Amino acid sequence: MSKKAGHQARKRFGQNFLHDPGVIERIIRAIHPKPDEAIVEIGPGLGAITEEILAVNPKLQVVELDRDLIPVLRTKFFNYPDFRIHEADALKFDFSQLVDEKPLRIIGNLPYNISTPLIFHLLAQSGVVQDMHFMLQKEVVQRMAAIPGDNNYGRLGIMTQYFCKVQPLFEVGPGAFRPAPKVDSAIVRLVP
What we know:
Number of helices: 6
Radius of gyration: 16 Å
Strand content: 15-25%
């Protein structure tokens, strides 16, 4: 349980909350958010990355399924009047509805138990996307970036590379999360 927010990570949502400030800083540097961009975060959890993005871009929008986290996020970020929370399942969410004039920059520490179907859902909407930065299970990132002849090469890599340039950025160990996952993670950049 996170004593800070009083929220128990839920296994059914695949929740592992990022808490390592060094990793958060590296992610923010990789994303390099700007104030005038249309940024959407999937699964903000307790808001570790959210907080850093809001400091630069107060119009951040998030998509969160766990209704118990909604009041936590509203309370934590009440002083950002343009911050928007969409209580929805990212697997069914129409990201194109968030497009105004600028293409979307989508970020997230995606739940590992739904990451592949969620990636496919997002690839289908890649026409409205500038780029995507995700924390995923390391093995998933390896499959996304695999080339023909590689043991990891398959449907996920073929589909992802058809729609996007895949750039694995860096790996993240289990200790950066609470609770710690049983697998290593990696950050990937996808550019349609």
